[in-house]
Amino acid sequence: MTTGTADGTWGPVPFFTQARTFEELWPDIRSRLTEVFEDGKFSHGRQVARFEEALARWTGARYAVGVNSGTDALVLLLRACGLEPGDEVIVPAFTFVASASSVVLAGGRPVFADIDPVTYAIDPKSAADAVTPRTRVIMPVHLFCQMADMDALLDVAHHHRLTVVEDSAEAIGMRWHGVHAGLLGAGGVLSFFPTKTLGAIGDAGAILTDDPQLAEAAAALRHHGRYGRTLGHFPGISNETTVNGVNSKMDDIQASVLLAKLTRLHEDIARRARLAAAYTERLAGTPGVLRLPTVVPRTARTDPVFYVYLVEVERRDELAGYLARHGVGTETYYPAPLHLQECFAHLGYRRGDFPHAERACERTIALPLYPDMSLDDVDTVCALVRRFTTRRPA
């Protein structure tokens, strides 16, 4: 096991890097980029269309619509679903701010619910309790390594005649009853932010749906409301707009990178699973580690995918500082629950409204997990965590 160098220092383990991945994929990426430059179409071009088709095949979606970020994907999907001003969307209080800000940007009103303390996903009972006559959408967010309880959430949606929009930004590869995340309700989204399981070299995202009308509407909204070149083909772009859209087209450089990385996505997911298993083995029983990731067994056949390795610990912020001083990067998911953030203060929530979400924000920390990591890197991180929790100075 790696325990540091002879002079007492520790090798750096960044929270994320894909340097080795890009070195291995560079010949393929360079070939695709050369095609982009020769074609002279840098946005919304042939590489984007090819990526949309490849992503649809990989996920099993009938349609994949490329856009320029996961956040835009949520905004456009909500608008395509017909969200109207003042419509309420139920969102978990423990998630990235974009889950709720997308509702505001689409004209709706976020209504928060508490989370399951084990899966960190929205609690179906709390979601059901949040339904009002103005509720239009339930937005489950699939976080970290597993999906929300979609059977229970779909039952809630069916009972109240609500639309389900999945924030599956982190969930590529996750499946429920064999159906890919994002395809259980009206549609879902993916983020290709560089740290994601399938990451670009900048911002990019996609909408997944099996509904042709929803796909067509979302694809038009991403291009100023103009129809044409919307579902993976090139019939020509209409100059007439029928709805106010935005400029959220995916660029072809990002699509080129994503196409290359998609060829090894299964391998990368398997590598993440092996690293997560190594973490679990090495951290089991560590004092001060309150909870390791737990994949909840359910009646549905579920396919977990480790996006990050999230643990709950005592003295979370102190541990993050300690690891940083020894060259190990971490991330806090999430430092404050959404219902207590200033941008949502007007909604009137108070501390104590969602205790599971609040507790998670105080104790969770994500340790490095990405395909370029080695088992020695995992050993280094775990050794440092143990040293900190047992109060032995390095």
How would you characterize this protein structure?
This protein is 37% helix and 13% strand. Helix 1 (19-39) crosses helix 8 and helix 2 (46-59) packs parallel to helix 8. The protein has helices at 19-39, 46-59, 70-80, 98-105, 124-129, 150-160, 212-221, 252-262, 265-283, 316-325, 355-363, 375-389; strands at residues 63-67, 88-92, 109-113, 135-138, 163-166, 175-176, 179-180, 187-191, 205-209, 289-291, 302-303, 309-313, 364-367. With 394 residues, the chain is α/β, with parallel strands linked by helices. The protein folds into two domains: 22-262, Aspartate Aminotransferase, domain 2; 264-389, Aspartate Aminotransferase, domain 1, CATH 3.90.1150.10.
Shape: globular
Average of per-residue pLDDT values: 91
What is the number of helical segments per DSSP (H or I, 4+ residues)? 12
Q: Round the Cα radius of gyration to an integer and report it.
A: 21 Å
Question: What's the CATH first level of the largest domain?
Answer: Alpha Beta
Strand percent estimate: 5-15%
Order of helices and strands: HHEHEHEHEHEEEEEHHHEEEHHEH
The named CATH superfamily of the largest domain: Type I PLP-dependent aspartate aminotransferase-like (Major domain)
Largest sheet entry? 7 strands, mixed
Question: Distance N terminus to C terminus?
Answer: 16 Å
* Major beta sheet, strand line-up: 1-9-8-5-4-2-3
Q: Please, how many domains?
A: 2
CATH topology of the largest domain: the name is Aspartate Aminotransferase, domain 2
Helix/strand class: alpha/beta
Number of E-state strands: 13
Keywords: Aminotransferase, Pyridoxal phosphate, Transferase
Family: Belongs to the DegT/DnrJ/EryC1 family.
Organism: Streptomyces qaidamensis
Pfam family, one: DegT_DnrJ_EryC1
